[in-house]
Amino acid sequence: LSKTYESLREEFKRKKVNTKNVVVIDAISKTLKEVTEEPENCLFVRSPGALTELSLIISKFLKYNYDHLIFDSVNNLLIYRNKSAVERFMLNLVNKVRNSKTKAVFIALPLFLLLGHVNSIHHLRDHLQPGHIAPYVQSPRQVTLLGTLATMVEHGNNRNRLDLEVHKILLHGKQHSWQPVHGRVRLSLHGKVDKLQPGTLLLIRAKVGPVTNFKTPGAFNYKGYMAAKGIFTSGWIKNRQDIVSVQAPEERRIRLRYLPERMRQQVADFIKDHLPADISGLYQALLTGSRTGIDEETLEHFKATGTMHLLAISGLHMGLLGLMIGSILNWLFRRSEWLLLHTYVPGLALMGTLPVLLGYGFVAGMNTPVLRALLMAAIVLSAILLRRQFDLLHLVAAAAMFILICNPLALFTASFQLSFAAVTTMALFLPDLSGTRLQHREVPEKKGLIKRYTSTPLLISFTATLGTLPFMLYHFNRFSLIGPIMNLLIEPLLCFWALPLGLAAIPCIFFAPDIAAKLLQFGSMGISAGQYCAATGAALPFASIWTITPDKGEMLLYGALLLLWYFKNRKPARILPTLVLGSCFLIFHFTQGLFWPKKTQTSQVTFIDVGQGNSTFLHLPDGSRILIDGGGGRNSSFNAGERIIGPYLYSQRIWRLDQAVITHPHSDHFNGMDFLISHFHPKILYINGDQRSEGNYNQIIALAKKLGTQRIIPEAGQVVEEGKTFRLAFLGMNGLAVAANSPVNDNCLVLRLTHKNRAFLFPADISSKSENILIKKWPELQSDVLLAAHHGSATASSPSFIKAVTPSLIVVSAGKNGKKYYPDPLNIAAWQQERITTYITRDQGTITCLTDGEELDCTPYEQKYNPARL
């Protein structure tokens, strides 16, 4: 129903398929042309819509008890006949197949996609099932949990984390009792944690709530990431004393179930105790899959050099390990004449690698990424055993389908997309590699050997980079220009040196710890060398390129161009010019914002959800891109610029900032500016000149100076940007009558944007004292949208100031940790009494306002809240 007999015959001939016992029912050819001759093994139907004729012919062949009936495809019938007719036909056909000895395969892509969609919804709604813990903690609250430690405790630089399989929950408060529940909770805590063994029954007091995201376009979807792991609830343990081990008899099934995680815990603890902190973190990532012990600087080095995937247990690790073990076993087995005569030695060697790979998977905890890597390696090895390794694309598809059946949400994870994009591209463009066999070859000359062992890995790395490029840019907005070369240098150090020695050390940990320590110390030399290479490569100029987020059209065009390149030899005269023109168009479309900023007739003001902090992005009619503040929270380990604001700007296809403003030197307003200045290169940075700084403020100012960004301390009334219909200017507080000993907040830079008849006011963190000064200085403060001063706290937003501004909408930039005070409940009540619409970023998410000077629409990120038309 989808191909003609002639096309099938050519395909069978090309793949050398014996068609002696194959009969084709062709319902396509007669719709295209007149058929004069009918081959012996083909029957023609006048159209796919001729269901009666089709049914009679199929019934005829079912009587002969053919082994298989392949029906390709059900969805094509829907093009020719209505849904009810197709349903009756399929029901009749299925009943006939059931009454015969023929096995039928019905290809139905829409049905497959529908089942996948339904399965995904089922996984997403798993936490809504009766008895799940999630409905009990729909908002953060204190609880006591009774559950089993499901994973090893991962020790990070700033916090420890663990997953608890919950059995019972006790809600703190009046008239609450223990409730039986199920589900997994991710818990975190500071401080030293004693060695807890997975499978242990624990009683834990914690503050628990739903897993949340920053509600900002482009920001990492942590909620979806955790949902793919089956975790919908997270919490915080105040101190170690809130964890109590419960003595209970341990069943054998419990020991077996948690055996992989217990092994993983013991290996991680041994590595941590016997190696320096910087080395142990990398070695733990390589052997156990936990990267929590790696410091941010080292992670950045591996990201910048395109070798971050080497620190995750992937199909690459499994494949290289299997290749190395298989090659050694193949060489050993070929020494035996009996094995050569009575067995298939390459297959026997590959079978010997499976126990090693399985053991590696156990040590790594047998979690989803490890299972995916193990599955892909097992399928490829099995295919080689069955001598079907030339159909690598089919093997990749089989592995992907199996994973998605088990966990459909894996489709939306970066690791799944990157893994299968890399393997698929290699299968398409490296056919010789896809058919690699472990077979005896004559040893080439030394020069040829060196060339072979350098060019082949380089080609593999380049091809994988080519295939994963759009996904890398979509998820991470960066790629490494030196990635293929750095992979060539670092892969052998980690995968052929450190990894085998680490795996050899694992059994020794339990029987000969001294030998294990020596093996790990020797393996750590490879880790150190790899770490040095990554640091050296990351220091090179243009080692890593940051870009905007590609849109779906660009990603589809990129994929189409790759396919054109794959088919270029079939019709080069047509394909090559199309390929060149398509590539030029794609590059132009992707980079045009870098040279020609988008100009419109509207002003866009975006209040970005950065948690407990402030950041507002302005995109003005003349194309100017201005950022007011760039901070979120006061956690030094969390860079709001890199994690939230930068990804938002990239998602909006912003390559550069023209100007940036730090309203005052409090970290919740600037702690992401180092990243933003480095990657978005604003020409001008406005600061208030206050020397009472905190955090890394002085380093940010020094960085701006180093990069050539002009630093300006503006006075009240100074214009930032002005056009025919708009004006952005400072209203204070520099140059106004602010007391010399006033707090830092009262010296903030205050800005106001006007666009024809509409206005926005940005008062930063000023208190009511500075608000009164503004009222006296600027009689015209009226603004349609007001960013609540000092996050809506009790020290600001005085009644007189609100009366002077008369806003129709107040936006409060506040995070979940300051819910009691930001905004102040009295302020909320006063605004409600005045019937002023209020948006809070922790609830509504990022707020985007768009105006042409007449109409003004403000849309929250959370779609369940109605947009405000002012």
Question: Could you characterize what this model shows?
Answer:
This protein is α/β, with parallel strands linked by helices and 870 residues long. The protein folds into five domains: 5-107, no CATH class; 131-257, OB fold (Dihydrolipoamide Acetyltransferase, E2P) (Beta Barrel), CATH 2.40.50; 266-546, no CATH class; 552-592; 603-865, Ribonuclease Z/Hydroxyacylglutathione hydrolase-like (Metallo-beta-lactamase, Chain A), CATH 3.60.15.10. Helices cover 46% and strands 16% of the residues. α3 runs parallel beside α5. The longest helix is centred in the middle third of the chain and has 31 residues, at 446-476. The two termini are 56 Å apart.
Q: What is the helix tally? A: 30
Task: Report helical residue fraction.
Answer: 40-55%
| Count of DSSP strands | 30
Strand order of the largest sheet: 20-19-18-17-16-15-28-29-30
- Alpha-carbon distance between the two ends: 56 Å
Structural class, from secondary structure content? alpha/beta
Instruction: Outline the low-pLDDT stretches.
Output: 432-444
